[in-house]
Design brief:
Chain A: Its EC number is 2.2.1.6. Chain A: Pfam families: ACT_AHAS_ss, ALS_ss_C. The complex is a heterodimer of chains A (168) and B (586). Chain A is α+β, with helices and mostly antiparallel strands and 168 residues long. Chain A is 32% helix and 42% strand. Chain B is of the alpha/beta class and 586 residues long.
């Protein structure tokens, strides 16, 4: 088996009961796995199901372990490795605050336009941009904002779903 | 169907009775008083009052592992629960089915740092298979039944139910156990037939096969052990067992190579290293077993049968993995084997056995008992010879005595050997023996112990005396934490930092102070009589066996070394024998 480290996006469907997120996070910290991002929200209020999207990295053996260990948790219903199971869509939202005046302020607005970021708050010397896209796109946008007065970033982490008609 | 609502504490008791529980191990306290009050008013369940909550869990483990049933613990909130954590972790690592009921402050006080409040579900999340905080008496019955189901099915393990006091004192609906269909927890029992056929195909062509089986076979049940034995006899393959697996295959059988691993036999480890097909059944390629991973059995195809998918490819990548219950999978393997009329290469197998016979001739476990000073191995050997014809259960603590017991006591049946393998908990053996004796009142139960380990839970002498449990404590007293001393000798220039058992009590007087019988054995020729006298004594006996202080446990795979580089005896310079990478390992 290869020892290359790759990034994987994993979807986990769990019973939305108290402590379930702590179980998942505790598993990662306890066993020394990486969490690059983690998002969670209830997706089926009637069935009380939450969906966790996890972005993690590791060798194929470690990724297999992560999936098996997640599957072992009692409130976990399903574990899917979107990265290996086929094409999927992944999106992340970021709120980016940029403070500045004059040319820098104009340049920030111009780049935001190129990236299709929306202005969701504005004052005489600041903007809050809302940008949605793949993690790479958000990274690129934030890097460009750095010299233009970037002061604050809030990111959701990736939410992901398989393409096509199959459901989790 | 609708029953009269009943008090939460009553629901707990009723659920226990309906789950077939006859004994629980516990210690009272404020938060669980309602349950103790219900216990007082019934006759179905016997409560054993331990003297420390850790001992309650170990006792429940001993009960569980010697019966195959779920062990039950009842402790109070806060310190009661935190004291139980070591036991729970022990049960987790060794896959022992335990249900532990912990008291909790009333729900409206949770989070206020109330008296004897601890975040029990938070603290035990990583050391249990699952845990629950029950917030309504109407959930109690369901959670209780579910906990027994989760603890005892799949890969067994400990389950904690945290019970706020108000929930115990409020009325709720009871429901009897039904066939549980859990929404998310569904352990796979049957193995995939395709994988099983692949496994059989590999085994059929094996020239140097080995069966490496572990505690999973014991957990699967006596039927699994019989199926394993039948499969081994049918195939003619050699068998080695892990520490946890001892008893899963007859210890006196000619196909048995002994235990493998760090203090396993030379023949078992050499056969593991040189085999061409390895059949791992209910074992988990633990670091004590594999030695240096990169050199672990380098030329073999590996088959792994385990009920826990996370055990597959965790430490060692295998060629064929079968997820399922051991008994089911071996049964199916046997069917496939028979229907395909498989007959392995007999010449190759004969040559393999000839090689194994050569390794056996090294006699890696031999020792010389001469003079008065008792060799610890000799003490175990005599204990074995004098107890093998009785129904005997052995528990151990952790250290040299544990390894000597594993090497020199031979187990022909499963569920007769209770030891702390994964966590390595000193202080496990004596309370575990208490639990075993509760389950098997007429059997001989012996805790093979060291003087340091014994002192970690010696307060349980009071428990043994109170319930008239005739447990025999067989202390191999070398006045050292022997395994620590052995490593210091090997790796730290014999600088015995803090490993000397200074200021030991007089164990005979100690036993007598508790109302038990104490014996001291100082000479080899006194041993047999002392063992016979202890067995004949109708009550707990503490045997202080003064053994050689300098004896070390061999053979040994030094840390960071592969199976074929065992030390068969003392080396001149241990730091030379173990490289820097090995020295950082434990």
């Amino acid at each position: 088996m290869t020892t290359d480290i790759n990034t994987h996006t994993i979807s986990v469907l769990v019973d939305n009961e108290s402590g379930v997120l702590a179980r998942v996070i505790g598993l990662f910290s306890g066993r020394g796995y990486n969490i690059e991002s983690l998002t969670v929200a209830e997706v089926d209020p009637a069935e009380k199901l939450s969906r966790i999207t996890l972005v993690t990295s590791g060798t194929p053996m470690v990724i297999e372990q992560i999936k098996a260990q997640l599957g072992r948790l009692v409130p976990v219903r399903r574990v899917h490795d979107l990265t290996v199971e086929g094409p999927h869509v992944s999106r992340e939202l970021a709120l980016v605050k940029v403070v500045g005046t004059g040319e820098k302020r104009v340049e920030a607005l111009r780049i935001a336009d190129i990236f299709r970021a929306n202005v969701v708050d504005s004052s005489n010397e600041s903007f809050v941009f809302e940008i949605v896209g793949k993690t790479d796109k958000l990274n690129a946008f934030i890097n460009l904002m750095e010299p233009l007065g970037l002061v604050d970033v809030a990111r959701t982490g990736a939410a992901a779903i398989a393409r096509g008609s199959e459901s989790i | 169907m609708a029953q009269e609502p009943m008090l939460g504490a009553k629901i707990v008791l009723k659920a226990l009775v309906d789950q077939g529980v006859d004994v629980i191990f516990g210690y009272p306290g404020g938060a669980v008083l309602p349950i103790y009050d219900e216990l007082f008013q019934q006759n179905h369940i016997k409560h054993v009052l331990v003297r420390h909550e850790q001992a309650a869990v170990h006792a429940a483990e001993g009960y569980a592992r010697s019966t195959g049933k779920v062990g039950v613990v009842l402790v109070t909130s806060g310190p009661g629960a935190t004291n139980a954590v070591t036991g729970l972790t022990d049960a987790m690592l060794d896959s022992v089915p335990v249900v532990c009921l912990t008291g909790q402050v009333p729900t409206h006080l949770i989070g206020t740092d109330g008296f004897q409040e601890a975040d029990t579900t938070g603290i035990t999340r990583q050391c249990t298979k699952h845990n629950y905080l029950v917030k309504s008496p109407n959930d109690l019955a369901r959670v209780m039944h579910e906990a027994f189901y989760v603890a005892s099915t799949g890969r067994p393990g400990p389950v904690v139910i945290d019970l706020p006091k108000d929930v115990l004192m409020t009325k709720g609906e009871y429901m009897p156990p039904t066939r549980i269909k859990h929404k998310s927890y569904k352990p796979q029992v049957k193995g995939d037939l395709k994988r099983i056929e692949e496994a059989v195909a590999l085994l059929a062509n094996a020239k140097k096969p080995i069966i490496y089986a572990g505690g999973g076979v014991v957990n699967s049940g006596p039927a699994a052990c019989q199926l394993l034995t039948n499969f081994a006899r049918m195939s003619g393959f050699p068998v080695t067992l892990t520490l946890m697996g001892l008893g899963a295959y007859p210890g006196n059988d000619k196909q048995f190579l002994g235990m493998l691993g760090m203090h396993g036999t030379y023949e078992a480890n050499m056969a593991m290293h040189d085999c061409d097909v390895m059949l791992c059944i209910g074992a988990r390629f633990d670091d004590r077993v594999t030695g240096l991973l990169s050199a672990f059995s380098p030329n073999s195809k590996k088959i792994h049968i385990d009920i826990d998918p996370s055990s597959i490819n965790k430490n060692v990548a295998v060629d064929v993995a079968v997820v399922g219950d051991v008994a089911h999978v071996i049964e199916d393997m046997t069917k496939v084997w028979k229907s395909a009329q498989i007959r392995p290469d007999q010449d190759a197998l004969a040559a393999w056995w000839a090689q194994i016979t050569e390794w056996r001739a090294v006699e890696c476990l031999k020792f010389v008992q001469d003079g008065d000073v008792i060799k610890p191995q000799y003490a175990i050997q005599r204990l074995y010879e004098l107890t093998k014809d009785r129904e005997t259960y052995i528990t151990t603590e952790v250290g040299q005595h544990q390894m000597w017991a594993a090497q020199h006591y031979r187990f022909d049946k499963p569920n007769h050997w209770m030891t702390s393998g994964g966590l390595g908990t000193m202080g496990y053996g004596f309370p575990s023996a208490v639990g075993v004796q509760m389950a098997h009142p007429d059997a001989l139960v012996v805790d093979i112990s060291g003087e340091a380990s014994f002192m970690m839970n010696m307060q349980e002498l009071a428990t043994a005396v109170q319930y008239r449990l005739p447990v025999k404590i067989f202390i191999l007293n070398n006045r050292y934490m022997g395994m620590v001393r052995q490593w210091q000798e090997l790796l730290h220039g014999s600088r015995y930092s803090e490993s000397y058992s200074e200021a030991l009590p007089d164990f005979v007087k100690l036993a007598e102070a508790f109302g038990a019988v104490g014996m001291r054995v100082e000479k080899a020729d006194q041993l047999d009589d002392a063992i016979r006298a202890a067995i004949a004594t109708n009550g707990p006996v503490l045997m202080d066996i003064c053994v050689s202080q300098t004896e070390n446990c061999y053979p040994m795979i030094p840390s960071g070394k592969p199976h074929n580089e065992m030390l068969l005896g003392p080396v001149a310079d241990g730091e030379q024998a173990i490289d820097a990478e090995g020295q950082i390992l434990v």
